[in-house]
What we know:
Elements: H1 8-22, H2 30-36, H3 45-52, H4 56-62, H5 69-85, H6 96-112, H7 118-129, H8 133-138, H9 143-154, H10 169-182, H11 188-198, H12 205-212, H13 216-227
Amino acid sequence: MPHKAADPEIIKVLLKQEIIRLGIQNNPSRTVYQDRYHRGEAPSPNSAMQITKMSWSDLMHDLGFSYDAKKNIAQNGKKGASKHLGAKQSIRLADPQICEQVVNGALELMRREKLYNVKDFRLRCRPVLGVSYDSLMRYGFSFEELKKRYAAKYGESIRKTSRWSRYSNADLTFLVIDYMKAHELNGLHQYSTYLNLHNDAMPATETLKKRLQLSYSELNRLLKILLQ
Length: 228
């Protein structure tokens, strides 16, 4: 759903930042971006196009990227066909080699997206790795075990801080406000309910209350004022 109050120029900045973060600036495929963008923080392709009133190709050129639409369509068509043929096959963690690849991918994900707690990791596990956190657990890779492997691989321990610690209170608040406007959520109850249904990577109500040192009713009142 488009963000009614979004500034097209801000959307362009966020979109460019996410493309660079994903490392696809040399070939900013819409399909690859759709599969990998950070939901809840970066704009979706459809939202970006709707808000800016530009096609994906025009957006990429406007952002200064080289983009060949026909080439990407052809490449993605081949990938899609290959994926379709193998659609019934699932990632087999019972295969030691595949399992090791998935675990390494999990460690890289934790480092790249600063996933410092099991709740955030669980949300990103299946979309990025292709396996659920429960599946990893069944093969002995709990978040605690992954933290040990993380320390062994990178020589540092997982910090016990929230992924939202890099945001100031103001930035965190307006991140939530933008999200609520984008999804037409009118209050804290709707926000919490929507998050529980969609598992988007956004700060939980308890996180907001703790960071802003507000009660539920005070936080709800603040959000409603800022939504006006």
